[in-house]
Amino acid sequence: MEYQKILNQIEAELTAKQSTGQVASYIPELSKISSKKLGVHLYCINSGHYNFGDSTERFSIQSISKVFALTKAMSLLDDELFERVDVEPSGDPFNSLVQLEYEQGIPRNPFINAGALVISDILISLLDNPKEDFLRFIQSIAHNDSIKINNEVYESEKKYSHRNAALLNLMKSFRNIKNDIEVVLDFYIFQCAIEMSCEELSIAFMIYANQGKTLSDGHQVLAPRKIKRINAIMQTCGFYDEAGEFSFRVGLPGKSGVGGGIAAIHPGQYTVTVWSPPLNPKGNSELGMYALERLTTLTGLSIF
Ligand code: GLU
After folding, report:
1. Spatial separation of the C-alpha atoms in residues 56 and 274, rounded to whole Å
2. How far is the CA of 29 from the centre of ligand 1 (A)?
3. Is the entire prediction scored with pTM above 0.85?
4. How many angstroms separate the alpha carbon of residue 2 from the centre of ligand 1?
5. Tens digits of residue pLDDT in 183-196
6. Count: domains in the chain
7. Residue to mutate, 59, 95, 162, ligand 1, most ligand atoms under 8 Å from C-beta
8. Is residue 261 situated within a structural domain?
9. Which one-letter DSSP state was computed for residue 255?
């Protein structure tokens, strides 16, 4: 397949397209990013790397980090993890409080904020040096020791985290948070402030497309049965309250973040990451979704 030719066509289509999306501004530091940034990196198991645009420039991965955090937690725990967080799509915005109240503090899934905060709590309880160990985990699956957080984004989100603090307080009242709220919030904001490029995310996401193994050295990071579950959660819960629409249009498991990134996978075939900061009203990268829809259409390679 002529992947680079297909990417070039997608680039031409995206450049001609007028985006109506808005760059996230509720974390003030994120609003400083140019809305014109655009990059794609496709990493195929059989034929290697293809890309265009700003694919090597790092951006704030935000909620894409929730996939890595779940992976780390599932490497340390078995099914007992899912007593504290469910695996159902929420159909509500990512930072919504309402379901938590009537579902007794058990978040719908690990990719909405409430669920990710429970995963943060679990990692804090289980890791010796939570921040260092978690960053080290991402560096190892991305094969890149220079990956780090953006301090400005970290400080910026710290000033505007009232809603995440509310989620933590509510869950603590239901005894589903064990550590101090401030400590959990700090770890969660740290993980969201990690910066990676499309290329680095595509390399790190290869474990989800390759049965839990890195491609370069074949290291088994997580058992295939656990990878299957993470992919299922990405498919059903990876795109806020637009997971159905993403499945319908693109047909791949993936995860988006409010920094404008989307990382997606085709098991046994490829990983792909897109970055375009303007978000649609549901919080997903508008051009990112379009690019991935065109990729699965033009290659004929979606999971359906
Ligand atoms: N740090 C962001 C928040 O909690 C992440 C949101 C996202 O990317 O979905 O609001």
Report:
1. 11
2. 13
3. yes
4. 36
5. 999 999 999 999 99
6. 1
7. 95
8. yes
9. E
* CA 113 to ligand 1: nearest atom: 4
In a domain, 95, yes or no: yes
Residue 44, domain extent: 3-299
The question of whether 208 is a catalytic residue gets the answer no
**Residues of the chain falling short of pLDDT 50:** none
In CATH, what number is assigned to the domain containing residue 260? 3.40.710.10
Q: Is residue 134 in a domain?
A: yes
Residue 304 in any domain: the answer is no
Say how far apart CA 166 and CA 294 lie, in whole Å: 39
Alpha carbon distances (Å) from 213 to 146, 226, 280: 21, 12, 33
Residues with CB under 6 A from ligand 1: 62-63, 94-95, 113, 157, 164, 192, 257-258
**Is 216 noted as a catalytic residue in this protein?**
no
Tell me whether residue 66 is one of the annotated catalytic residues: yes
In ligand 1, which atom is closest to the CA atom of 259?
8
Please tell me the residue having the least CA distance from ligand 1 atom 10: 95
